[in-house]
Amino acid sequence: MSELARDLAWERPAAALLLQAERGAAVVGHATPLELDRELAELAAALATGGAREPRFAYQAAAKSDTAAQLSRLAEGLDAIGDPASLLYAARARELALERRLCESVGTAAFFALARQRYPRRDRFDAEADQVAQAWLAPHARDADDTASAERASLSDAPSEPERTSVSDDASDPASLVSRMRAELGARRLPVVVKVEARMSALAATGNGVVYVCVGRQLTSSDVERTVLHELDGHVAPRHRADSMSLGIFRVGTAFGGDDQEGRALVCEDRGGFLTRPRRTELGRRHVASRMVEAQASFVDVARQLMDVGAAPADAARIAARAVRGGGLAREVAYLPAYLRVKHALASSPRDEQLLAAGRIAVDALAVLTPMLSPGVAFAYRA
Hints:
This protein is mostly helical. It has one domain. The chain contains 20 helices and 5 strands. It has helices spanning 3-7, 11-22, 27-31, 36-48, 67-81, 84-104, 111-118, 124-137, 139-154, 177-188, 221-242, 249-252, 257-271, 277-294, 299-308, 313-328, 335-348, 353-356, 366-372, 375-378, and strands at 165-167, 193-197, 204-207, 210-214, 218-220. A hairpin with a 2-residue loop joins strand 3 (204-207) and strand 4 (210-214). Helix 8 (124-137) crosses helix 14. Mean pLDDT is 90; it is low at 1-6, 147-159 and 375-383.
């Protein structure tokens, strides 16, 4: 055994424990309300008539276990090793312990404080994201975009036609989200299945070996193509690449790696020309809603604020519900800061994308991982 392999002898067992723990820490799944669609319809109807009320969400919490305590003990052992790599794994162990506690406490008074620990303000990009969200929601920004769109349309002699729409889960329509997702996964030969999931507020979500697509949403062709790009380039492909990496941290992710992967997925959207006015408006509304929940605003207050910045009642109900789910998850406070953080990192060092695109890797972890993945380290366990 090489000196290098001896130095990292703890890595394989630690990664195995973290991967096992991750399977039981599906926060979004546990925090998504049961019978979400029916409750959203009632909430939207109430908002439309001025009779807003707080949601009556029910959840299925994870069974109580000692997983979080085991992860905390693992983190202490990794701390004792004391090198930068072990500290990286220790941080992920603590994050997973926190996520497990979130799964076990959905719908309880304890959930909100745990969520704020999981989604804290990390750096200067949080304040910058607040400014970006406000700019994207400003009436003058929307007016400017409308003017630009009109000017572009006037350059063409042919009148612009409205985009084709399709229902998200219509498997008989080759242009639907479920069909396009399956077609693109097949074209890329990615070993991932597509499943339709009724209990979703997002258009799609990626899990271990699966992409979930929502039910019954009317989508434009741009919505479909953007979502396919977001899920495949932003989430599915990095998971697939992580399986070929020698270090388990790529498969299990670093602390805040899931957040920064969402940021990189938005960078992919930006490159593809999909951060259009409607998309920026949606992201700005989600950010504002989550910031309000972070400050302990109620669903009704959040929904009314969203309607004040132009959201229809159905959209206001959907976005507000997404922010308050579980008891105040508000995970979208991480999306715009992560987008700005990743964009800044790649502008400074384009080569960093090789690591960010190889798993759920946080920008903060790059300084530790880059020297570990010199040729000698990258293949230390393949002999």
